[in-house]
Amino acid sequence: AQSVTQLGSHVSVSEGALVLLRCNYSSSVPPYLFWYVQYPNQGLQLLLKYTSAATLVKGINGFEAEFKKSETSFHLTKPSAHMSDAAEYFCAVRILLGDDMRFGAGTRLTVKP
Amino acid sequence: DTGVSQDPRHKITKRGQNVTFRCDPISEHNRLYWYRQTLGQGPEFLTYFQNEAQLEKSRLLSDRFSAERPKGSFSTLEIQRTEQGDSAMYLCASTQGLAETDTQYFGPGTRLTVL
To answer: pLDDT digits over B53-68, tens only?
Structure first.
């Protein structure tokens, strides 16, 4: 069965610094991969998704992620953190003909002024 | 497009009581998903509907849980004889299409506390 592991439950960066949130997947078949963001008291919002087209995926709010099959990774990055990026980030995986989406445990991003 | 809405946003109940949550998906979205999210964890899939048909249920969905989507519009999730372990955020999501890559739009969730 497919799964994702998010390395680091908490990440803290300074405003303007690089954001790197790590996600590794496990799947016996080619996966579809997603990053979601959750702000307090709100639902999850899709940041970006990998659907087997381009390996470098650009999303909203300046985020991007690169699918690396050799490393089974789909890390999320943003060149310069903004205070408004503080939130919980979830990586998720789904497979062709798969009914459910499997989420990681999440990474809480804190941005220091 | 008013987004996915869920009602109530918060529910506090005593152990052994029944509770029912409602989810209104985005209009004309074919699929509707239910997830459960506990503190410090990502959402866990419970079940989903394609129109009015319930197509898949997770093993997490015990016999005390039942979900419906009459007429393929809104959905309800009922938990009977609630237990303290049922305390969680219950999330609903919907998609317009049927592809695995379709974006799931999430509601704000219903936070259940069982005393």
So the answer is: 998 888 888 899 999 9
